[in-house]
């Protein structure tokens, strides 16, 4: 009789352990799906689309001739400057973003959450290019400095300045 009771408790104990193990597996699986879904939702940022706000001309300082004209999206608020070109996959070679600041001072940028390699062009209040930081790496949090005071900053695809021979001293004009 004692042997039957021990056997019965043993079977019940095994059944309880199995139920606990299956419950834990079920809960872990469910919470794993929940975490994955929340992370997808958290990082599933809708990718901004280029919005043409104007046109910008690069003008040679050598002969005052237009080097190239591009379409620009303007970032002139704190929020739009912070967003910049983040989360975008592509940008046409004839497009760029023009950042307009309230104060001419040394500017600093980074490539956090930016998936397009960029040339970053710093321009003073006279609309003269004072510094070009070419070929900036995607997703980098390294500071990209103007060194000299700038009121405007232009972001274009990496290699743009080299392709069109845009250099420090050249002028911009935009409308």
Roughly what percent helix?
25-40%
Please give the number of β-strands: 7
Tell me the strand order in the biggest sheet: 5-4-6-3-2-1-7
Averaged pLDDT: 87
What is the architecture of the largest domain at the second tier of CATH? Answer: Sandwich
String of helices and strands: HEEHEEEEHE
Search tags:
Jelly Rolls; single chain; alpha+beta; 36% strand; seven-stranded mixed sheet; 2 domains; 175 residues
Mind explaining what this structure looks like?
The protein has 175 residues and is an alpha+beta fold. The chain has 2 domains: 1-44; 54-174, Protein of unknown function DUF192 (Jelly Rolls, Sandwich). The chain has 3 helices and 7 strands; from the N terminus they run αββαββββαβ. It has helices at 2-43, 78-83, 160-164, and strands at residues 54-59, 66-75, 95-109, 118-123, 129-136, 144-157, 171-174. Strands 5-4-6-3-2-1-7 form a 7-stranded mixed beta sheet. β2 (66-75), α2 and β3 form a beta-alpha-beta unit. The chain starts with a helix and ends with a strand.
Short description:
The protein is built from 3 helices and 7 strands, in the order αββαββββαβ. With 175 residues, the chain is α+β, with helices and mostly antiparallel strands.
Helices, strands, pairings?
Blueprint: H1 2-43, E1 54-59, E2 66-75, H2 78-83, E3 95-109, E4 118-123, E5 129-136, E6 144-157, H3 160-164, E7 171-174
């Amino acid at each position: 009789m004692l042997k039957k009771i021990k056997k019965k408790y043993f079977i019940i104990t095994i059944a309880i352990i199995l139920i606990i193990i299956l419950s834990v597996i079920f809960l872990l699986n469910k919470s794993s799906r929940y975490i994955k879904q929340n992370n997808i939702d958290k990082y599933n940022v809708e990718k901004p689309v280029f919005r043409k706000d104007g046109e910008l001309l690069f003008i040679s300082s050598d002969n005052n001739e237009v080097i190239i004209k591009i379409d620009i999206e303007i970032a002139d608020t704190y929020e739009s400057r912070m967003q910049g070109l983040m989360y975008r996959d592509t940008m046409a070679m004839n497009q760029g973003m023009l950042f307009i600041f309230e104060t001419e001072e040394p500017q600093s940028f980074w490539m956090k959450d930016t998936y397009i390699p960029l040339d970053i062009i710093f321009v003073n209040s006279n609309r003269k290019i004072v510094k070009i930081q070419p070929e900036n790496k995607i997703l980098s949090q390294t500071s990209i400095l103007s060194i000299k005071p700038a009121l405007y900053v232009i972001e274009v695809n990496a290699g743009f300045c080299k392709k069109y021979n845009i250099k420090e001293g050249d002028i911009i004009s935009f409308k």
